[in-house]
Specification:
mainly alpha
């Protein structure tokens, strides 16, 4: 009930904003996403297609069109919209690309996932999320060396962030890089000595050595 009430209130707020300025594209997108959640697919499509006429390369619109297609069970169409969104993202934008990697992985298209993830590392070589995604894809592809290289970069850029370093360490263990995992775990523990995850990783590393 609370969720339904919140959606109703959000819709009313968006509609009031559009009554003042119908050209507010972000508000139109928010309203379309609410319509998708409410399964009002025809309304969402009409709204999105109207936006697309003047913004056919806008990655945000293309992303929501992908969400709409996915909600309708049109997987091929969802992929096509997502590929377009990724193609038109800015030089530092990665949202559509990361979603495309996930889509390929879920469908078992590992080579395609590797290609997209690699392109993202070229766009944003210091982005930890991108590096971790690339490492996971390479692990799935069986290329542990490439995964190790990406994780080494991620550990360097993550500084002493315990959450990032423990995630990196876990992936380094999966890649068979005990030295790297130990280094990342030590960085995590140096900033958060009582981290249960880091302590568990430290124990596992010790057992493997």
């Amino acid at each position: 009930r609370a969720a339904a009430r919140n959606m109703k209130e959000a819709r009313e707020a968006f509609e009031k904003a559009l009554a003042i300025d119908p050209g507010l594209a972000p508000t139109q997108l928010n309203l379309a996403q609410l319509e998708i959640k409410s399964r009002e697919f025809d309304l969402a499509e009409k709204r999105l297609q109207a936006l697309l006429k003047n913004n056919e390369k806008n990655p945000d619109i293309l992303l929501v069109l992908s969400q709409l297609a996915s909600a309708r069970g049109r997987d091929k169409e969802a992929r096509q919209w997502l590929e377009k969104a990724a193609d038109h993202e800015g030089s530092r934008q990665t949202r559509a690309g990361l979603r495309l990697v996930t889509l390929h992985m879920q469908a078992g298209r590992i080579p395609e996932a590797v290609a997209v993830a690699k392109n993202l590392t070229l766009k944003t070589p210091e982005d930890i999320t991108v590096l971790l995604t690339y490492a996971k894809v390479q692990l799935a592809a069986g290329d542990n060396q490439s995964a190790r290289s990406a994780l080494s970069d991620a550990a360097r850029y993550a500084g002493y962030n315990p959450r990032s370093q423990t995630e990196i360490a876990a992936l380094q263990l999966a890649a068979g890089d005990l030295a790297g995992a130990q280094y990342s775990t030590e960085k995590a523990l140096s900033s958060q000595p009582d981290s249960f995850t880091a302590l568990a990783l430290a124990t596992e590393i010790e057992l493997r050595q």
